[in-house]
Amino acid sequence: MDRLGRRPLLLLGSVVMTISHIIIAVLVWLYFDSWNGHKDKGWVAVAFLFLYMLAFGMTWGPVPWAMPSEIFPSFLRAKGVALSTCNNWLNNFVIGLITPPLIQNTRGFGAYAFFAVFCALSRVWTWFCVPETKGRSLEDMDRVFGDRAAAADKARRKEILKELLKQRDGQIEQEEVKTA
């Protein structure tokens, strides 16, 4: 994740997962009633299911757990990460809830087509809405999202440091006068 960046991983994962879902959907649609006569096609579907799982496990699985802590400013980080985690689990629950009826009511291929559409939409959303966080500070992320709070905090810390250094320098000068 740190070598490639988060955004490129999400974009690549979306493409691989979309292609995997499309291929599985087509194979299930074509051979749903005749898997016994086309076992090789079944193994191709299994291979693409494993490819999907690999792509998800390397991209969309871990990245959403890491990115929220890199985006939210310090004073909002705990709440932002909690909200992100809640959203992740809610989405997982909904997927678990709708997948069995999708498979039963669409002879299987409809579920894969449905998820292929969402994987394709995830690429569009990532392209337009997700910034790269690799190597960026929280202040940089604030600028990306138009928030000036962290930049103002950083400026205030600089002012405080200057004031402390002035006071220290003044104390050093006073001590030099006393010892002379």
Automatic annotation (TrEMBL):
Family (UniProt): Belongs to the major facilitator superfamily. Sugar transporter (TC 2.A.1.1) family.
TM annotation in the entry: 9-31, 43-60, 109-130
Keyword Transmembrane helix: yes
Entry protein name: Major facilitator superfamily (MFS) profile domain-containing protein
Annotated ranges, domain Major facilitator superfamily (MFS) profile: 1-134
Subcellular location: Membrane
GO molecular function, one term: calcium ion binding
Membrane topology, as annotated: Multi-pass membrane protein
Organism: Fonsecaea erecta
GO cellular component: membrane
Keywords for this protein: Membrane, Transmembrane, Transmembrane helix, Transport
SUPFAM superfamilies, per database record: MFS general substrate transporter
Record Pfam families: Sugar_tr
InterPro entries: EF_hand_dom (IPR002048), MFS_dom (IPR020846), MFS_sugar_transport-like (IPR005828), MFS_Sugar_Transporters (IPR050360), MFS_trans_sf (IPR036259), Sugar/inositol_transpt (IPR003663)
Domain EF-hand: 152-180
